[in-house]
Amino acid sequence: MIETVILAIIFAKIKDTEIKKILRHWEFYPVFACAIIYIFLQIDIFAGNYTVLPYSSIYKTVYSAAIFFLIYRFRIYKQGGIGIGLMFAGLVLNKLVMYFNNWKMPVFPTLSLKTGYIDIDKLNTIDGWHVVGDSSTRLKFLSDIFDTGYCVMSLGDILVRAFLFIVLYYSFRSVKEKETT
């Protein structure tokens, strides 16, 4: 999710927000820390160490709490509500594709095979819910098909990341508006 944080910062910068002012607010540091931790988790997975995967739900909970705190702290309830709606839709899409595929998330790696991020032989046993997709996969367009080389995402995953982007961007704008007045 580091790319989502970076994208929100770039977009805020394009929209004339001073990043230095954002960095003065401690409220963003838990989100930034989670993004950095995510990088180390990805590096661990690249190295073939999958022992961190069972703890991913704890990580996601902490990350979500940090994001929800931004909604509360900067009072961006409308934008937060839109983001939460997108996140909920993403989660529903992910569960839907899993439902139609025996509660497994089919993965169609392309670039990740070349970078070494995914080992096809280990994919089916890593976490219990990801499996290599094949011709029998139902709702393939909702599966993990968007491959970045270090992550294979579904449309649902992208909607969840849109939630993070919206909350960060409007939090940054809130800081800009407070600094302006």
TrEMBL record:
Phylogenetic lineage: Bacteria, Bacillati, Bacillota, Clostridia, Eubacteriales
Pfam families referenced in this protein's UniProt entry, alphabetically: DUF5317
Protein name according to UniProt: Uncharacterized protein
Transmembrane in keyword set: yes
Transmembrane segments: 28-47, 53-74, 81-100, 152-172
Keywords: Membrane, Transmembrane, Transmembrane helix
